[in-house]
Specification:
The complex is a heterodimer of chains A (396) and B (458).
Chain A (H helix, E strand, L loop, with lengths): L1 H6 L12 H33 L30 H34 L4 H15 L3 H13 L9 E3 L3 E4 L2 E4 L1 E4 L3 H29 L5 H20 L3 E4 L2 E3 L2 E3 L2 E3 L1 H28 L2 H9 L4 H31 L11 H13 L2 H30 L5
Antiparallel strand pairs in A: 1-2, 2-3, 3-8, 4-5, 6-7
Chain B lengths: L1 E3 L5 E3 L14 H9 L4 H27 L20 H13 L8 H18 L6 H21 L15 H6 L3 E2 L2 E2 H24 L4 H23 L14 H27 L4 H16 L2 H15 L8 H27 L2 H9 L4 H16 L1 H14 L11 H8 L10 H32 L5
Antiparallel strand pairs in B: 1-2, 3-4
Helix pairs in contact in B: 3-9, 3-16, 4-5, 7-8, 9-10, 9-12, 9-15, 9-16, 10-12, 11-12, 12-14, 12-15, 13-14, 15-17
Classes of the chains: A alpha+beta (396), B mainly alpha (458).
Chain lengths: 396, 458
């Protein structure tokens, strides 16, 4: 044995650059140098270019007067407001589209996704056509279609489509009643909050009780009556403080009510229906991922179809659905930047569009805009990941 | 047959033929009862669905075909109370929708590019056809170069290389042009190549490595790059067509195909970087990938349009389409990296260990064992990212590059064709084109997925 070792040919002395460790460190140093040099070159060029074009640098411009109007503002804003304020307005508009779009897309997506698996041939056919058509058309195409072909084709305000004298749809947008908060609204809001807390507590208590005794309490009905009843009682006590201001046709336009601008409607509807097609596919594959044995086992335990779906299939399917659902929500949020194509005043249109054109400070503005989307992405994925962790399969 | 005994006992010795099932449970009637009207909710859904179909389909067919106008010279043909789609409008605008403002007498050039693309793409997509290696080499290397020359006209002025900066070569050779090729530049280029190769080789030899191999590799890189520049430098006698004149489906396809072709190598590198053991390389890859995946494409295009020129040396003002292409390539490279990473992760550890046990180096292992398997696995993923890239190309209209959708939108403003149905006709046509492209590709990706799945099917 020792013979072998002794007589083994002496290992040929290899250069140290063939040592994997040295190589890996060397490669990394080279990569770092390349990145740093590139970054330095870019920064140097940018400095020269900015100086040559006499473009100001820094974030001071945020305090300057914007001087342009925005046709949908969730917070008070006027032409004399600052660029910083315009940024907040744009950001809020983006968030508004994202939130409304996500809710709509989830509802439509789940309905269509379940419809894709329906035994009913007609429902299945319609769901399949919905998914295939919506998924295969570019989102910007769909936004332009809703904006130019659907909403612009609506009648003028005088001939607007009248829904129960409360909501009017015309080519100027959708007019809905405006809630007016009179005295005593505070109490109603408190009652709502209290009802919500009670409902959550009751839900937990009922779940714990079911764990213990096996008996199910009518959680849905109790909570519904709590959530509706308590604020109702508060309303009655305070004498109905919340009233609605109805829109009325005066001359050629509406007075009163809230006008939802057509750009918002087009963008939200287009994004929601587009994203819903993808969510539907996620839902379908999620449900299909639950093995058929689960359904059979649930049936043999005596659960009805609805109970099987609600208590056995959906909770397990959610595990598969959540991760891709997260990325769909992110996609919708990112796609809301297509607003600039139809002039909806979202973050990109207001900030990376108008503000950039006026100030020329491309680096700061685009960095801020990209930063906002990155932060939104990170927040969404953190929330979704924590939820995902909660529903994920706990293995032994 | 049955037996009957004297005492009245009855014993059946053969099975009676079963009665047919009730008629309401079999055949069309049974299927309809079972599938469409099994419960109240189901009945409501069925009737609602049928109503929806009846409400949507007949008007659609009437608009597209029955009431449509097929011939005409201008808007006059499409005016009228019950007129459907105005197809002559599409006919009149067809050239614009496909080529943009590409000079009409030069349109044979994009035609050749389209035809060559189809000729190279189809054999690449059919899994059973041979010569995949050669084919992909042609499609991913030669085709982009040829297309570039054909579409722009080539004859790009090759600018100074390393030594020209010192005025050395110019003093030596002067301004010499041989057959439309700038000889001054090429002398410069060759000298630079030799110098750099010598430098790299010498440095490595000094460190104890194989200097000649390194020098050879460097020379090969210079040769490949030089060949590329030479093709662009030669004057083929083609008229120069600036990219501002490009438009329509041509631009859509140029952006989508360039995006995919450029993002594939970049994405593979990034995916390998993300899976690498080296912490700095991994960190750089992760930051790059997550950054581009976290921002919307439109901000990337804004970045490429407004911010990129600021980062380049003064005086270089790259073309608008080129800037958009850079943005799209970076953006899709990040997505491609994740697709490729999925493939790399799907390869079992045994393959890596087997390759290492065979004594293959890291690059041999990747090139010969891992990547061929991983890339085959992710073909559906690549096709899917091509579909989303194809849909995303529409966004360039926001930075005023007139792609297919941009041309369509521009054509709506033509007063010659202003009619109530122009808008709907345009959307119907564009929708059909986009749908056919994307739907076709998604079917292909499904086909490949099924084909790849066969071995795992139970």
């Amino acid at each position: 044995m020792t013979d072998l070792v002794e007589h083994a040919p002496a290992r040929e002395k290899s250069s140290f650059i063939n040592d994997p460790k040295v190589r890996s460190i060397g490669l990394q140093i080279i990569a770092l140098i390349v990145v740093v040099v590139l970054g330095w070159m870019f920064a140097d060029n940018a400095r020269e270019n900015l100086a040559a074009q006499k473009i100001a640098t820094g974030f001071g411009f945020l305090d300057n007067t914007a001087g342009f109007g925005i046709n949908q503002t969730l917070i008070p804003y006027s032409e004399t407001s600052t660029y910083g304020r315009a940024f907040v307005v744009g950001l809020l508009n983006t968030i508004l589209v994202a939130v409304v779009g996500i809710i709509l897309a989830t509802v439509i997506g789940f309905l269509v996704g379940i419809g894709r698996l329906s035994k009913n041939f007609v429902v299945r056919l319609i769901s399949t056509i919905y998914v295939e058509v919506l998924r295969n058309l570019p989102p910007l195409f769909q936004i332009l279609f809703w904006y130019l072909a659907v909403l612009s084709a609506m009648p003028n305000p005088r001939q607007s489509i009248n829904l129960l004298d409360e909501v009017f749809i015309s080519n100027r947008g959708i007019i809905i009643p405006r809630p007016l908060f009179g005295e005593g609204t505070g109490l109603v809001l408190w009652a709502m909050g209290l009802a919500l807390i009670c409902a959550i507590l009751f839900g937990h208590w009922a779940a714990a009780r079911q764990e213990e005794t096996g008996r199910r309490l009518p959680v849905l009905w109790v909570n519904l009556s709590l959530l509706i009843g308590l604020p109702m009682i508060a309303m009655i006590i305070t004498g109905f403080p919340i009233t609605f201001e109805r829109p009325e046709l005066k001359g050629f336009n509406f007075v009163g009510g809230i006008r939802v601008i057509p750009e918002f409607v087009a963008l939200t509807v287009a994004l929601a229906t587009y994203t819903a097609a993808f969510i539907a596919e996620n839902v379908r594959s999620g449900i299909q991922a639950v093995s058929h044995g689960q359904t059979e086992a649930a049936h043999s335990l005596g659960l009805r179809n609805g109970q099987t779906l609600r208590l056995v299939i959906i909770p397990q399917a959610m595990r598969v659905i959540i991760p891709p659902l997260t990325s769909q929500y992110l996609n919708l949020t990112k796609n809301s930047s297509l607003a600039v194509g139809i002039g909806y005043p979202d973050l990109v249109a207001v900030f990376a569009g108008t503000t950039l054109n006026q100030t020329g400070q491309a680096i700061e503005i685009i960095a801020i805009t990209m930063g906002v989307y990155l932060v939104l992405s990170i927040i969404t994925s953190v929330i979704m990941n924590s939820y995902n962790k909660r529903v994920a399969l706990v293995e032994r | 047959m049955s037996l009957t005994f004297d005492d009245g006992t009855f014993i059946r010795s053969e099975l009676e033929t079963p009665l047919p099932p009730p008629r309401r449970q079999v055949g069309i009637v049974g299927w309809v009862r079972e599938n469409l009207f099994s419960s109240v909710l189901n009945t409501v859904l069925t009737l609602g669905g049928i109503l929806l179909v009846a409400w949507v389909v007949p008007p659609f067919v009437r608009f597209m075909i029955i009431d449509a106008v097929w011939t005409g010279e201008n808007r006059e043909a499409c005016l009228g109370p019950d007129v459907g789609a105005c197809w002559p409008f599409i006919h009149a605008k067809f050239g614009q929708l496909i080529y943009g403002f590409y000079p009409i007498d030069q349109r044979w050039r994009p035609d050749i590019v389209f035809a060559a693309g189809i000729l190279l793409m189809v054999p690449l997509l059919v899994p059973s056809w041979p010569f995949k290696r050669l084919n992909s080499l042609l499609f991913f290397v030669l085709y982009p170069v040829v297309s570039f020359v054909l579409l722009t006209g080539g004859n790009i002025d090759a600018s100074a290389f390393l030594f020209e900066h010192f005025g050395l070569i110019h003093a030596l050779v002067g301004d010499v042009t041989v057959a439309g090729v700038n000889a001054t530049f090429w002398v410069d280029y060759v000298l630079t190549a030799v110098a750099v190769a010598a430098l790299v080789g010498g440095l490595l030899a000094l460190l104890g490595g194989s200097g000649t191999a390194a020098a050879r590799t460097t020379l090969w890189v210079f040769l490949a790059f030089g060949a590329l520049v030479l093709v662009w430098d030669i004057d083929f006698g083609l008229e120069y067509v600036e990219t501002r004149q490009w438009g329509g489906l041509l631009v859509t396809l140029v952006i989508a195909v360039t995006g995919i072709v450029a993002s594939l190598p970049l994405g593979i590198l990034l995916a390998l970087g993300r899976r690498s053991q080296m912490p700095i390389v991994r960190l750089l890859s992760v930051v790059f990938i997550e950054f581009w995946r976290g921002v919307p494409l439109i901000t990337v295009l804004f970045f490429a349009t407004y911010m990129l020129p600021l980062f380049l040396p003064q005086g270089t003002n790259p073309d608008a389409l080129l800037r958009a292409l850079v943005g799209v390539a970076l953006f899709s490279a990040a997505y491609m990296a994740e697709v490729v990473r999925g493939g790399l992760q799907a390869i079992s550890k045994g393959q890596y260990e087997g390759a290492m046990a065979m004594g293959l180096s890291w690059s041999q292992m990747m090139r010969l064992i891992i990547l061929p398997q991983a890339l085959t696995l992710v073909i559906p993923g690549i096709v899917n990212s091509f579909i989303s890239l194809f849909k995303d190309t529409t966004l360039v209209l926001i930075v005023s590059i007139f792609d297919f959708l941009g041309q369509l939108r521009a054509s709506f403003t033509d007063p010659n064709w202003a009619s109530p149905v122009t808008l709907y006709t345009g959307f119907a046509f564009a929708g059909l084109v986009y749908f056919l492209f994307c739907f076709g590709m998604s079917r292909y990706s499904l086909f490949v997925e099924r084909r790849l799945n066969t071995s795992h099917r139970r």
